[in-house]
Design a protein that fits this description.
164 residues; alpha/beta; six-stranded parallel beta sheet; 45% helix; 17% strand
């Protein structure tokens, strides 16, 4: 996976703000930060930051969970991961159970229903929990899921184009 990220950077270099975001995230994580929010405007390449950050954790043998609240975003994020050659499962109603993958793209609603409210299955034991569209995924279901990840020691990073 790490080689893929390096090859991708040769073909499509990071924009300066993306490189800075990744460096700042790495620095915060090294300094013991357990959760933070990354803001970048629409079209600013948040998916690229999410993907590169995921590749870094996966390259270290760690697990990643990427949450979103809309089916269209779930499918878009999965497509981006497919394009980059990153194997992942999708934890959402109507998708095959592929929880053996270290990276999971998760529906907040499905994970809350199955993993928090009814405990039919455990949440993905990720060391990195990412949340897309963090500005609309606060409170309720998302908070319950992310609280469990934090209890397990995960680093939680939210992404938004709408910081306020």
């Amino acid at each position: 996976m790490l080689l893929l990220s390096r090859a991708w950077n040769v073909l499509s270099p990071l924009w300066p703000h993306q490189a800075k975001a990744l460096a700042d995230i790495d620095s915060a994580h090294r300094d013991g930060c357990r959760r933070l929010c990354v803001t970048s405007p629409t079209g600013g390449g948040k998916s690229r930051i999410i993907t590169d950050l995921s590749v870094r954790f996966l390259g270290e043998g760690l697990k990643v969970a990427l949450y979103t609240n809309r089916l269209a975003l779930l499918e878009q994020l999965s497509s981006v991961l497919d394009e980059r050659g990153i194997q992942h499962g999708i934890r959402s109603s109507g998708y095959a159970d592929e929880r053996h993958h270290r990276m999971q793209v998760c529906s907040i609603q499905t994970e809350h229903s199955r993993g928090v409210r009814s405990e039919k299955r455990n949440l993905h034991r990720a060391q990195l929990a990412l949340i897309d569209e963090a500005h609309v995924n606060r409170g309720g279901m998302a908070d319950a899921i992310l609280a469990r990840h934090r209890e397990q020691g995960a680093f939680v990073v939210g992404f938004t184009a709408t910081p306020i």
